[in-house]
Amino acid sequence: MIVLDLAMNSYHFNIYPIDTHHVKDCIVHFDRGIYRVHVEGKLIGMMVKDHVEKFGYSTEDKDLKPLIGEIAGHLHEKHLRKKFAMDIRSIWNVILEANFINEETLMVYIKADTDLEEFADCVRDTIYDHVEFDEHLNLVLSQMDHDEVIDIQIN
Description:
Blueprint: E1 2-5, E2 10-15, E3 24-31, E4 34-39, E5 42-49, E6 57-58, H1 68-91, E7 95-102, E8 105-110, H2 116-126, E9 137-143, E10 149-154
Parallel strand pairs: 8-9
Antiparallel strand pairs: 1-2, 2-3, 3-4, 4-5, 5-6, 7-8, 9-10
């Protein structure tokens, strides 16, 4: 699970540190180019984007170094999902809006004069040509001011 809090520029997800098999709560706050990483509520370090480094981020904090690969993977996954929400608007010009309503659900509104069932069939047939992320996503299709929805499960 990955959550993006746009107001705080924060990412929230679970990690599995190398030295343990127990899940740990991780929150990454982003501000002015610096990612502050908290595990179980404790600041363990800061990292910055670094395209030269293996995972795309660098840090001087010893507690953060062994986790940077896993954290980078979670951040990359979140960016792919955000990119997907923007890309589908340009792929299908019948889409009026595409917004995340929670971490697992993307609500998509289409034009009122578009046949919802026909569009859903088109999406089902081609959606995996456009999905680059691995995590589960509910793609909910609807028309503005209509009650009918179609839920398409991705991954």
